[in-house]
Write a structure and sequence with these properties.
The protein is mostly helical. The chain has helices spanning 2-52, 56-59, 72-82, 85-116, 122-132, 141-151, 158-161, 168-181, 184-192, 197-208, 210-226, 229-234, 243-249, 258-290. 25% of the residues are buried.
Length: 294
């Protein structure tokens, strides 16, 4: 009996240890995969930094240089002295900030209206809005250019700010998020307290929508900051160049100082990293909350 009891305990110990070992192996594989994915995502930024610290000749070495050099300050000085970097930086900042602010205001207000108000042709309008998301942006370049020309906005920064002040994706995102986190009881309580329609949006809904606003704000800011095609169409004066246009203009016809281009690209990337670092927590919260419906 004693021998049988020992054998049973030994078997139970093996069976209980096996799931723990399997869970440990699964966790190790998951964390290893996440670590490799993080390294793969961060490597382009590291490579950009390495190229910014090298000379143009070092970029064509084989095997390639994997450690930072000592030319970063030299390349940055060439960027600041050779091109109008600060002017283009200011143009990009003005465009990105104002464009993002307008998108957040109009898209959140329209999304709130679609989610919580009833009005004629609500469903057809929302369906039409979704259909516009399927149209490639390039198809609207010529009509938008003609409109900007009629308004006299060619070579003006407002041509980069106002046309996209309300995006279909932004309205769709805010509508879905509003519908998932703001209950009808809260809206009815606001009406009982005497809130008008705009008061319901501004005082009741907007504070709750901060995670969604942060998510949409980051996506819009990144898209506006990195936009190159539309500014290339409506801007031809160098004083109105955005950073992306300025960096593209640094590619010479016969020769290109790639070290200076890489340094300018690194300097243009820093604001994006700062913005995402500041709002990353709200960004993740917005994505997680918007994916769950009570």
């Amino acid at each position: 009996m004693a021998a049988n009891t020992v054998e049973v305990k030994r078997n139970l110990g093996v069976e209980s240890a096996s799931p723990r070992r399997t869970a440990w192996i699964s966790s190790a594989l998951v964390y290893t995969g996440m670590g490799l994915g993080a390294l793969a995502s961060l490597f382009p930024f590291y490579w950009l930094f390495v190229m910014s610290t090298a000379t143009t000749a070092d970029m064509f070495r084989f095997p390639p240089r994997l450690l930072p050099g000592d030319q970063l300050l030299v390349n940055i000085n060439k960027v600041l002295a050779g091109v109008g970097f600060f002017q283009s930086f200011g143009n990009s900042l003005i465009v990105a900030v104002l464009h993002t602010a307008m998108v957040l205001f109009f898209c959140s207000m329209a999304g709130f209206a679609f989610a919580k108000f009833d009005f004629p042709a609500k469903k057809p309008l929302f369906l039409f809005l979704l259909l516009t998301m399927m149209v490639p942006q390039q198809l609207g370049l010529i009509p938008q250019f003609i409109i900007m020309q009629k308004l006299g906005w060619i070579n003006e920064l407002k041509a980069l700010i106002i046309p996209g002040a309300a995006s279909a994706f932004g309205i769709f995102w805010m509508r879905q998020y509003t519908d998932s986190v703001i209950h009808d009881e809260l809206i009815n309580a606001g009406r009982i307290d005497g809130c008008r329609s705009f008061d319901l949006y501004w005082l009741v809904a907007l504070p709750i929508l901060k995670p969604a606003l942060a998510t949409l704000g980051i996506i819009t800011f990144l898209g506006s900051w990195n936009d190159y095609l539309w500014p290339l169409v409506v801007i031809s004066v160098q004083e109105k160049f955005t950073l992306q246009m300025l960096i593209a203009s640094m590619n010479g016809v016969y020769s290109t100082d790639y070290s200076m281009v890489m340094a300018a690209t690194l300097m243009a990337t820093v604001p994006l990293i700062v913005v995402f670092t500041i709002f990353s927590r709200q960004f993740i919260a917005g994505l997680m909350q918007g994916s769950v419906k009570d």
